[in-house]
Amino acid sequence: MRPIALSCGEPAGIGPELAAAAWSALRADCPFVWIGDPAHLPSGTPVTLLDDPARAVAASDSALPVLALPFAAPTQPGRPDPRNAAGVIAAIERGVALVQSGACSALCTAPIHKKALIDGAGFAYPGHTEFLAALAGCDRVVMMLASDQLRVVPATIHIALSEVPRALTPALLRETIEITAAGLRDRFAIAHPRIAVAGLNPHAGEGGAMGHEEIDWIARLLQEITGDFTLTGPHPADTMFHAAARARYDAAVCMYHDQALIPIKTLDFDRGVNVTLGLPFVRTSPDHGTAFDIAGQGIANPSSLIEALKLAQRMAASG
After folding, report:
1. I need a surface site. Which of 42, 119, 240, 258 has the fewest CB within 10 A?
2. Which residues bind substrate (predicted)?
3. Is residue 203 marked as binding?
4. Which class in CATH covers the domain with range 143-278?
């Protein structure tokens, strides 16, 4: 068994305390090695400093395995320090190197704070996902939010709603569907994935009464796409996410951010996991941010990070 690499994320957020809580809950059942500055972990956290991640499996029973990465500054919960930006970036790079070399089975990333990275290190990427794609040399990756109840993939992500109709092209939607199908097959061990595609407009346009994209090109594109998967749609998004509908597909491809994220966060807010499909390695992340408002108080819920680590373990085993 190879451990999962867990990058520390923003040290002034809840990442360090969640790492300690996740280790306490999982231990040797799901061994991981935390990459960061051990001084940023909660006081009293049992730690084993490693120079070889292979030792993490044996060490996990008694202490949190740590690959120490010294940061430039101490941390104060809730107050990100741009001086630590280079360390946050280096932890991600180290995690990617470990999975690429085979020393770790998967990468799990704690939340980052993009402004601190920009201010402290001129970070040139919109977020984690784009940085990981660049490190892996990938032109296109897909964001999936996954839980035991639902998997969703937004075709467009962090753009204004007014920009979605222009950004949503046939090429983008086709690529999103094909990467999703490959990810379900290769990472989730679903031999013949079932994918449901939402319409862009209310009631999937209702025959053109509420929008024309479905008639103009979306329905035709879905008929043209073929592969070792079942594809249905475009479906009215307001009837796609009740229990009976969810039983008919393995993942839903949605047209924009909130169309995808509202259902999964309503159904399973604490256990949703962010998965990046299209990378040459497994990457998961908890589906929440740095939570500066509660950092250091010991009240942050570790459920999403625990689920992210467990899912990374399962996905690595499937691949």
Report:
1. 258
2. 128-129, 265, 274, 283
3. yes
4. alpha beta
